[in-house]
Design brief:
Layout: E1 2-6, H1 16-28, E2 33-40, E3 47-50, E4 53-59, E5 61-63, E6 74-76, H2 80-85, E7 92-95, H3 103-112, E8 116-121, H4 131-150, E9 154-157, H5 160-166, E10 175-177, H6 194-198, E11 206-210, H7 219-229, E12 237-241, H8 247-257, E13 263-266, H9 274-280, E14 283-286, H10 295-302, E15 307-310, H11 315-318, E16 324-327, H12 332-344, H13 346-363, H14 366-381
Parallel strand pairs: 1-2, 1-7, 2-4, 7-8, 8-9, 9-10, 11-12, 11-14, 12-13, 14-15, 15-16
Antiparallel strand pairs: 3-4, 5-6
Length: about 375
């Protein structure tokens, strides 16, 4: 099979969606022809091969400074239709972001080349982020998002939650769930103190979180909860992996609460070093307000970590009750209490760590995800 994946951003840009496309794409490339059509962002070449995947980059306008309700960065690709028509060898075109592709995508694929089209919903319908984000996304889907879905031979969603709240009722039978995954050989339990040594952290409790520094991720509430936790664990530390527009505000919050010496912000971590951050942590915490299917939760599971996260979106589908604890969003007191519970109860935490690793290996590897997508492609083409 020849599959052309459409993703407005791709490696070396590495957000959640880009990581998903990279990981299952390189696995399928061992058996099938995989090409990626993406935007040529600054510092990238028009064409290269990565892990067996042929990556074509179309010229674009690269926008980083956007209104808060839009997720930066955003690309505008004036030559997308031209470059799509050059990929006529593809049997299936697979869209990975419904917010970037319009008529100039549908016309060449469906009506000129008459090819099959598929969509993965990496983003669920936003709920509870902000008024503008929630309403603008809902309006977009009613006006255009549903039109894309109607033109697809098959729709994949990254969680049951994403499928149920995003796909309209009349298209539910044309949609199925394909969970994101993790490389269980890279993310695994191991004893390694290099990250603790790098940040000057001793043997005390270390909390880890990983996510973009935007309102959706709920970092304000984690820092507030961490401030409360310090009353019980004075040697506790927190590492926040991520970058984003709220960095300065979050740093100011740490100073205001007097925990600035116990909180570290980490960015630009090489992919090969990322697993070591999970290994260093006592607990993984994700305080998000909305989350379709967070890759970082799969990474924490595979690393054998007990997890405290919010009861929103797809989180309850990933983090079962024997792997971690779910709390209401926007509730720093409850977040603090559950973190405190797992830090105080070594036996409970150790059992959860064992269960987390088993759950990841049995259910959420990239090999499993790649096989699911391969099966969908074959059914669509049969």
């Amino acid at each position: 099979m020849e599959i052309c994946m459409l993703d407005p951003l791709f490696y070396p840009y590495f957000g959640g969606t880009e990581k998903v496309v990279y990981e299952f794409g390189k696995r399928l490339a061992r058996k099938h022809g995989i090409s990626i059509l993406t935007s040529r962002i600054p510092g990238t070449s028009p064409y290269e091969e990565i892990e067996g995947m042929k990556v074509y980059r179309t010229p674009c306008i690269y926008l980083k400074n956007l209104p808060s309700f839009m997720p930066p960065p955003y690309t505008i690709s004036p030559f997308l239709m031209r470059d799509l028509l050059k990929r006529s060898e593809a049997d299936i075109f697979h869209i990975h972001c419904r917010y970037f592709y319009y008529l100039e995508t549908l016309i060449p694929i469906k009506y000129i080349m008459k090819k099959k089209l598929m969509l993965t919903l990496h983003n669920a319908k936003p709920e509870g982020i902000s008024f503008m984000t929630d309403k603008s996304a809902a309006l977009y889907d009613m006006v255009w998002g549903y039109r894309i879905m109607e033109n697809c031979s098959r729709i994949a969603a990254v969680s049951r939650y994403t499928k149920e709240v995003t796909v309209p009722g009349y298209l539910q039978n044309n949609a199925e769930v394909v969970y994101n995954g993790v490389d269980e050989k890279r993310f695994k339990p191991r004893k390694d103190n290099s990250v603790r040594e790098k940040f000057g952290i001793g043997e005390g409790p270390l909390l880890l979180t990983n996510g973009r520094l935007v309102t959706q991720k709920g970092m304000y509430y984690l820092i507030e909860a961490f401030y409360m936790l310090k009353k019980y664990f004075k040697d506790a530390k927190l590492i926040i992996i991520g970058k984003g527009p709220l960095k300065d505000e979050l740093a100011s919050q740490c100073f205001r609460l007097g925990v600035q010496d116990s909180v570290s912000f980490a960015t630009g971590i090489p992919e090969e070093e990322l697993p070591l951050y999970y290994n260093a942590a006592t607990l993984f915490v994700l305080p998000t307000l909305w989350e379709p299917s967070a890759v970082v939760l799969y990474e924490a599971l595979a690393s054998g970590k007990a997890i405290v996260t919010t009861r929103v979106g797809g989180n309850p589908e990933i983090v079962s009750g024997n792997c971690g604890v779910l709390v209401p969003p926007r509730n720093p007191k409850e977040l603090c209490d559950k973190i405190k519970l797992l830090l105080e109860d070594d036996g409970l935490r150790k059992r959860m760590e064992k269960n987390s690793r088993e759950r990841a290996v049995d259910n959420f590897t990239w090999d499993i995800a790649a096989k699911r997508y391969e099966g969908i492609y074959k059914r669509v083409l049969s």
